[in-house]
What does this fold into?
Amino acid sequence: MKFDAPAIMNPIDQLKVVGKPTDRIDGPNKTTGIAHYAYEQHEAAPDAAYGYIVPSAIAKGRISAIDLTEAEKSPGVIAIVTAENAGKLGKGTSNTATLLGGPEIEHYHQAIALVIAESFEQARAAASLVRVDYSRVEGAFDLEAAKAGAGLPPEGGIGGDTNTNTGDFEGAFAAAAVRLDATYTTPDQSHAMMEPHASIAAWDGEMLTLWTSNQMINWSRGDLARTLGIKKENVRLISPYIGGGFGGKLFIRADALLAALGAKAAGRAVKVALQRPLIANNTTHRPATIQRIRIGADRHGKIAAIGHEGWSGDLPGGGPENAVHQTRLFYAGPNRMTKTRLVVLDLPEGNAMRAPGEASGLMALEIAMDEMAEKLGIDPIRFRALNDTQVDPEHPERPFSQRNLIQCMEIGAEHFGWSKRNPTPASVRDDHWLVGMGMAAGIRNNLLTKSAARVRLKADGIIVVETDMTDIGTGSYTIIAQTAAEMMGVPINKVEVKLGDSSFPVSSGSGGQWGANNSTSGVYAACVKLREAVARRLGFNTENVEFVDSHVKSNGRSLPLKQAAEQGELVAEDTIEYGDLGKKYQQSTFAAHFVEAAVDSATGEIRIRRMLAVCEAGRILNPKSARSQVIGAMTMGVGAALMEELTVDKRFGFFVNHDLAGYEVPVHADIPHQDVIFLDEADPISSPMKAKGVGELGLCGVGAAIANAVYNATGVRVRDYPIRMDKLIGALPLVS
It folds into this structure.
């Protein structure tokens, strides 16, 4: 199906199932343990051996010698895989570093060997006996120190051009009546998902089956085949349940490759899970940024010049954290400039983490907007509203398909009690607490990508949906079931959804908050074909037919839906593909975040008291799971603002706090009451579902809202995340 014109009325608009708060259909399987994750596929691979990864102990250099003698003698050992005996390996297009290192070492904790044994304990014990001699060389591990040597990143990424210029930024900024020129930093961050990267691999002749934890089945199937040097059709990836990803499982990692190599060496299935301390250094992370923002405005608050420059680092051949992208779209202003620069570092690979680019960029931009509002003596919401735009500021011929940011802010202000906020910092006290309110706006683009599905009508009237779409805890199973139920006129308990298998049609996959809108649109397209097949089988006119209450109706006739499959199941398959609406219109989602924070006047301890997100993201397919997505993102924003930081050892090039004991994330006690409001306005330009993504929007702007609340509470402006006690305590106001 080609979607190249705005959607008109269609069966989804009935909203009998879609748009209703619906419990997750996969919830009972997960809560009772029936849902098997990658490492738990015992029935599929009952005789699997265990693999344990040996990681590099240096960040850059070479292996000068590796001695496996003692490890090979260890009880239960079946085989040991290294780069020396693995055979020729390629590299996936999505991997910056090779997944099996040796003799060259590209980063700390790069996998250099896999020990395979009869039990996990035996594999771990033998791995400790592998002796490795290294020739270490000096590397670059400090973003600030290497910033002066930054270069241009590769062109053509999701973030667009490396540099953009509109009008005369430098001249307009110099002439502006009110100016801000400030630098902000965000640290390296880890995905820290609950389920580690894990895989089980089994070979049947030349055919490889990999049960893994992965967000993008088709991408990873291709990259695994490319790395192993085999045909893509000889690889089957299966990933029905994923215990969190946040972008860290978009691509194959060492567990997948080494499970495949280990299974080949052992002659039987092998299971590999990355031990928790490896995840921070062996896999990807959100790169640190340095951001310079300049804004110039007239005394009435209209922006005349806005510039955003960003620096980040990655391994040779890697890409940047595009923290400037949202600034190209978010606020009006005739004179504009953005620059992205990339520093070559020898730290572990940087790559996508929930809302890549915008999450980091808005942490800086939305503080800068508050700082400008204060300089101008204008309320922060009014300042943002004054500079709202209904068109792409760099390409004014492209209107936004939908943009109700001002409405988000106004509804949020009313609901949160913004009018009670005292704009004078450090002026509100509650016993020994300094109390403040802050807000920030958020934007995340609506990305479109083709997505396919297959639907079956069985003789008992059950609808079966098959697509390689994944569910990373976001609720994909449920919204896909809702879509099929709405289209075919059946209750949701008459829909069976099968996901995460490369033998199914290729979907959008999960990432970039594009999964919900695109994958359900693919199911919609397949259901349109199935409806036509059912109508023909039952002798109805395909143009004038209703599917309701498990019946098919037209011109006074009504027949049971299942009657169409009495002589054999009906199967339909289709792909949603998009025309040029994405070029004619800028498609984005918007949010307004509000936070009340309290800061201990003696210690600088920060406590979040209230949080509110008001989101505009097209039609909300399942308000229950969408709300869960947003409050999860808000919680992640608390972590980013107040505690999360991968601490770099700048001597030896690794993240020191590489486990869940040292890498701080929010716990229940850190999170207060959270509220979410959806505008829920269908966007017919987006897709036939008239929906957009929401899972990353909920993070965009949260960190800055917290930073602005802390400033309002204390009068201390922190521009370097995370905002911790040590950055506040020396500047807190004296309290009598």
